[in-house]
């Protein structure tokens, strides 16, 4: 409405005023202010959805520290109750973009998470930082890992134990399936799996609705604090430096508002760099996220795992070398094609895709490295990766490099029956 009708002169005046107001928050902001011109954002207000999880941090910091104003936009974060709500509002256009599960975005593109919708991944928001929590009841029975869980499960009727994730094609489903399968537990026949929104995980475990769940923080730490569960595995145990949430939007939105997309990514890149710049910044981020407007939780549930200081609630403490990361010289945020392709291999493994997809083509049209590179250039000080594929070694020793995805998908001994 006003974003598209306000005169260019007034728009620039409002942007300049907003930046001046934010300059007290960011040292040196006025020296690097966005210069209006032919590539100015087509929109000045951008609605971005988020789920109250630690990894929504770049959106929150970009908003509160004024990084959005620096690039000529105003972010309007909207808190959502579930990933299904994020999906629906993205598709309808109620949201311009969102903090969203990597696998949800790919599921939308392929029509296996809802009606097919052309989507775009503008950047990865974080790596690592999720976990699999098992109930205190299982811990009392001596179940501390997947192998012990396997012995218990085979002694019971199939489906006796229920495990929750957050969305059928989402990251948490894939981490949970991979972890269970590593101990030869079939996630579709040996146990029952259900979808539960992140904020409802702890409550459902407390009343006995599930024996385990996979979700982002702070809900794993909260389960430990409430003495109802313990961390059996972190997601970085499964895949060190794995991709997690992304900045997702519709492809048509990127095509219609490319300069706004660039400005949005630039703002979140700046925020990501600020978060990872120091321990003090991470602590401040945890303090901010704990507020009612964002996660509405205790700061103590956030800080330790933000800093990589882990206590699994079962007697083990460690400094995690692969704790949640947001920047790492820009490498975290790059929308690697191989990251998206990995989720396709898991969709194939678990029968969500019945036919072999064109892995490379799908990743190329979703992962908008062009927008990311333009944004990185605007931010400055970021060297783009030279390749679109990266190599990773997962918990079972399998090496993923994106070069032969169908062979990789078919390499797993355990897969969904009938897939």
UniProtKB/TrEMBL annotation:
Main location: membrane
Keywords annotated in UniProt: Cell inner membrane, Cell membrane, Membrane, Signal, Transport
Pfam families given in the database record: NMT1_2
Gene3D superfamilies tied to this protein: Periplasmic binding protein-like II
UniProt cross-references to CDD domains, sorted A to Z: PBP2_NrtA_CpmA_like
Signal peptide annotation: 1-35
Subcellular location: Endomembrane system
Family membership: Belongs to the CmpA/NrtA family.
Protein's recorded name: CmpA/NrtA family ABC transporter substrate-binding protein
């Amino acid at each position: 409405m006003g974003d598209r009708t306000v005169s260019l002169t007034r728009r620039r005046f409002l942007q300049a005023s907003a930046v001046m107001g934010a300059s007290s928050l960011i040292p040196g902001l006025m020296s690097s202010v966005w210069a209006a011109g032919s590539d100015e954002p087509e929109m000045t207000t951008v609605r971005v959805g988020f789920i109250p999880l630690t990894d929504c941090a770049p959106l929150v910091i970009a908003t509160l520290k004024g990084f959005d104003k620096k690039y000529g936009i105003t972010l309007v974060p909207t808190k959502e109750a579930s990933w299904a709500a994020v999906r629906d509002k993205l598709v309808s256009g109620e949201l311009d973009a969102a903090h969203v599960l990597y696998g949800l975005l790919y599921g939308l593109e392929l029509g296996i998470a809802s009606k097919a919708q052309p989507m775009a991944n503008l950047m990865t928001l974080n790596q690592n930082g999720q976990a699999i929590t098992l109930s205190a009841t299982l811990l009392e029975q001596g179940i501390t890992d997947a192998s012990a869980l396997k012995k218990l499960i085979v002694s019971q009727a199939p489906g006796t134990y229920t495990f929750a994730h957050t969305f059928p094609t989402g990251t948490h489903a894939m981490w949970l399936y991979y972890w269970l399968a590593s101990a030869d537990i079939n996630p579709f026949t040996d146990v029952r799996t259900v979808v539960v929104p992140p904020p409802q995980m702890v409550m459902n475990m407390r009343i006995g609705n599930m024996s385990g769940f996979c979700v982002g923080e702070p809900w794993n730490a909260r389960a430990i604090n409430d003495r109802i569960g313990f961390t059996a595995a972190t997601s970085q145990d499964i895949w060190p430096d794995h991709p997690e949430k992304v900045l997702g939007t519709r492809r048509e939105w990127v095509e219609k508002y490319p300069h706004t997309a660039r400005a949005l990514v630039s703002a979140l890149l700046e925020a990501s760099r600020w978060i990872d710049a120091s321990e003090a910044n991470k602590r401040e981020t945890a303090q901010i996220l704990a507020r009612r407007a964002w996660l509405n939780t205790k700061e103590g549930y956030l800080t330790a795992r933000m800093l990589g200081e882990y206590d699994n609630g079962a007697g083990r403490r460690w400094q995690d070398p692969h704790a949640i990361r947001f920047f790492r010289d820009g490498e975290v945020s790059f929308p690697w094609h191989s990251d998206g392709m990995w989720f396709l291999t898991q969709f194939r493994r678990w029968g969500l895709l019945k036919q072999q997809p064109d892995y490379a083509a799908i990743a190329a049209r979703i992962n908008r490295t062009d927008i990311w590179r333009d944004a990185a250039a605007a931010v400055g000080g970021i060297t783009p990766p030279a390749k679109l594929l990266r190599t990773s070694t997962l918990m079972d020793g399998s090496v993923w490099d994106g070069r032969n995805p169908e062979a990789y998908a078919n390499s797993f001994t355990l897969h969904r029956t009938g897939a």
